[in-house]
Amino acid sequence: MVSTDCLAGLSLEILLCHPALTCVFLLAFLAAVRWYIRDSYKVEGFGQKHVFITGCDSGFGNLLARQLDRKGFHVIAACLTEKGAADLGAAASPRLKTLLLDVTDGSSIRKAVEFVSREVSERGLWGLVNNAGRSIPIGPTEWMQFEDFKKVLDVNLIGVIDVTLHFLPLLKKAQGRVVNVASIFGRLSLTGGGYCLSKWGVEAFSDSLRRDMQHFGIKVSIIEPGFFKTNVTRLDLIDADLKRLWTRLPQEVKDSYGTTYFNDYLKAQDFSMGILCSPDISKVTRCMEHALTAQFPRTRYAAGWDAKLFWIPLSYLPTFVSDFVINVLLPSAKDKRNI
């Protein structure tokens, strides 16, 4: 057997015998070191900065609000429910402020802007985190009606755009940050319904916003989480809504899928979600925090091992490869008719 020392010596000899290869290796190493050092630089004055976060009743938004509060930021946390706001307020310092916000309601957004404007005064808003979102209705496209798409798009995409446009003047004052929560579903469309559409839209909106706002000192980052255990991925809610969608289908459509398709779909979904969903949502909020505190925030943050090592690499492969993988994960319809 060849020893490790021999292999190391052989590799070194190869590099020394090929100056061009040595230069490439050294340049790559130096670039990696420079990137790591640059990535670690932080902005100063957390105690003078205000951050507004949507969707703070639970999940990523709730944890991020408490995380930034402990760092000394002035956090303004928007919740959909009074209970969510009360629970978060009780778990944080008096510095953290809460308000009620429905991102699909223009008047609710305007009230939030007025509240935040009073809080930030002339300093402006340092950070806007568009985190509010929903996943259901989600499932096969044929099971959907137009209203099912609209429910999700109104929150996940139109809500993000509306909130961002209203807060841009305050962000320009502070030359602040926008952090938009997309998903690996914004790279690969794994299922029907409005969720994947909305996340692709968030990716596109964020890219155009970043290019337009860079002239004003505003930096825009996209968070692309993999699968995590939050209300968005609660199987009881998803399964119950899938049952609602299946029940209302005409019998002819049900027959085209086969008698076992619905149960097979639920089993496949529950199995894959059980394997993929991580309970450690701090992997996502650490990315959000970096986007808000780094001197040089990244354009995109892949959060979770599945996003980094599986879904995002898969999105770069030819379409037939991703189609094959998704077909393996989900059952096939049993329609035997000749088409």
From TrEMBL:
<feature type="transmembrane region" description="Helical">
    <location>
        <begin position="12"/>
        <end position="33"/>
    </location>
</feature>
<keyword id="KW-1133">Transmembrane helix</keyword>
<comment type="similarity">
    <text>Belongs to the short-chain dehydrogenases/reductases (SDR) family.</text>
</comment>
<dbReference type="InterPro" id="IPR002347">
    <property type="entry name" value="SDR_fam"/>
</dbReference>
<dbReference type="InterPro" id="IPR036291">
    <property type="entry name" value="NAD(P)-bd_dom_sf"/>
</dbReference>
<keyword id="KW-0560">Oxidoreductase</keyword>
<keyword id="KW-0812">Transmembrane</keyword>
<dbReference type="Pfam" id="PF00106">
    <property type="entry name" value="adh_short"/>
</dbReference>
<keyword id="KW-0472">Membrane</keyword>
<dbReference type="GO" id="GO:0016491">
    <property type="term" value="F:oxidoreductase activity"/>
</dbReference>
<dbReference type="GO" id="GO:0008202">
    <property type="term" value="P:steroid metabolic process"/>
</dbReference>
<protein>
    <submittedName>
        <fullName>Retinol dehydrogenase 1</fullName>
    </submittedName>
</protein>
